[in-house]
Amino acid sequence: MNNAIYSIHRPDNEPMMGYARGSRERNELEKELKRISSETVEIPLIINGKPVKTGHTGKVIMPHDHGHVLATYHMAGEKETSDAIGAAMKAKEAWLTLSWVERASIMLKAAELLSKKYRYTIVAATMLGQSKTVHQAEVEAACETIDFLRFNSWFAGQIYQEQPRSASDQLNRVEYRPLEGFVYTITPFNFTAIASNLNMAVALMGNTTVWKPATTSLLSSWILMKVFMEAGLPAGVVNFLPGQGSVISSVVMKHPDLGGIHFTGSNSTFNALWKTAATNLDKYKSYPRIVGETGGKDYIMVHNSANPPEVATAIIRGSFEYQGQKCSASSRVYIPRSLWPEISLHVKRQAKEIKLGDPADFGNFMNAVIDEKSFDNIMHYIDEAVKSPECEIFHGGKGDKSRGYFVEPTIILTKDPHFITMKEEIFGPVVTLYIYDDDKYEETLQLVNETSPYGLTGSIFSTDRPAMVKACQVLRYAAGNFYINDKPTGAMVGLQPFGGARASGTNDKAGGRLNLIRWVSPRTIKETFLPATDFRYPYMD
Questions:
Q1: Contact by Cβ (8 Å): 143, 151
Q2: What crossing angle do the helices spanning 441-451 and 465-474 adopt, rounded to 10°?
Q3: Which residues lie across from 50 on neighbouring strands?
Q4: From residue 18, how far is each of 137, 433, 494 by CA, in Å?
Q5: Catalytic annotation, residues
Q6: What is the SS3 assignment for 166-206?
Q7: Within 10 A of 16 (CB to CB), how many other CB atoms are there?
Q8: Residue 104's domain is classified under what CATH number?
């Protein structure tokens, strides 16, 4: 019998590889890029640990070369969804009764597999399937995924150790039970790390999942699923269901054993799921735990004490890395009139130097947006700016989808702080700048706070401490992750737990212990050593 109390080593963040020309990691990655691009993988469903092929298939293509098919995938229907729920429920009891450190050991092994054995595979698959530069893929598909797995294991240990005091005549304890039922996980295309975390954070705390991955990023998700299984994840703990969201959700959302939803994606989808859950409340055994990260309209606020080159670089990196396909990407910028001449020179120079193309060409800073629907949506917003007398295209503005879905890094100048591109999420390489009068700093802070319904990320650039403090106060609810003298992207696991409120989600902070708490339902247990034998109290005598 093992009576040990385990303590997981506090991890450090995974070191990032540089992939310099001639380096070993560069050579190994280039081999993987060549291998993966030369194959067409067949991706099945995984239900109860076994591959399932439905014959109803779709294609995974390279966004930067949409004639190139990377994989074909089988699509789940209602039967397969029901089977996956059954598998998740069947696996639940054995999984939740397993010691938490045994579950953590699987997570830590998966991290080691991704750090060493499959690092170049997951980076290459993310580059090709999601059109990411090597830097972006290394940062999140490798490092962030590994960090989630390691830090969550450490956070879990902290949670389980948190116990109430006991008096001399009693023993009190808290049991951190997983949620009753299964958890429905819906993952986005833009971050491989999120695809991993939405499942493994939930599983770590003793839950089982039905996983609906984004079909546009299925190659990297499939690799993750295989790594989970190789790490020792028992059959049925995570059930992998590519397919049409509406079909899968039609079965999941009506099921009485739905215990929770872990979601990252669009507001419209999240709102629809929440409304559907509300209409089915009388069917569920318990109220589903709903955790979601949705949209953003993230800002950079500039005070006239800011350093122009720093501001310009933040605009370029914050807006155009990964083609702006980050919920945290800077999308609106407020610049004081006195600094605009100098900032404009730096922004224009840097924007002109951006190269756009195939991620396998390491000289490119930007690649393609994810698919044609996204391309058309982004171009629609640019067209609105072109037509408006309130706007001018400062840089970019063109797109080409003949071979890949390429949109130029686009900078819009507007005289209207409420123009559509200042309010609505675009999810592409488009940033809108508004130039304000220096003496209207506090008024402009209110504009930032009130213009958009979102509250995900934002930043202030200032060397004036009182101005900085004022921005923090006024923008208290305008961002769940707030940055001082930095771009509003790049939160790191264990350092900056990530999430926002308002229309940006439930703010349950992935990358910290707060998210893990959402996947347990605590039970307090009190044991009394000498129970009372008479109902009367002393005051009654």
A1: no
A2: 30
A3: 47
A4: 12, 32, 22
A5: 293, 327
A6: CCCCEEEEEEEEECCCEEEEECCCCCHHHHHHHHHHHHHCC
A7: 12
A8: 3.40.605.10
- Cβ-Cβ contacts under 8 Å for 242 (sequence gap 6 or more): 43, 45, 58, 73, 74, 75, 76, 212, 213, 215, 218, 221
Total residue length of the chain: 541
Q: Tell how far CA 502 is from the center of its chain.
A: 17
Enter the tokens of residue 451. Answer: 């213009």
pLDDT of residue 2: 65
What pLDDT digit, counting tens, does each position of 151-209 carry?
999 999 999 999 999 999 999 999 999 999 999 999 999 999 999 999 999 999 999 99
Domains identified in the chain, total number: 2
The answer to whether position 215 is within a domain reads: yes
If asked whether residues 288 and 355 sit together in one domain, one would say no
Q: By residue range, what is the domain housing residue 74?
A: 27-294+505-523
Answer yes or no: is pLDDT of 3 > 80: no
Query: Residue 266 — very low, low, confident or very high, per pLDDT cuts 50/70/90?
Result: very high
- Phi, psi at 425, each rounded to 5°: -70, 130
> pLDDT digit string (tens) for 21-57?
999 999 999 999 999 999 999 999 999 999 999 999 9
Same domain for 286 and 380?
no
**Which of 476, 491, 481, 441 shows the shortest CA–CA distance to 462?**
441
For 77, other C-beta atoms within 10 Å of its C-beta total: 18
DSSP string covering 327-393: TT-EEEEEEETTTHHHHHHHHHHHHHH--BS-TTSTT-SB---S-HHHHHHHHHHHHHHHH-TTEEE
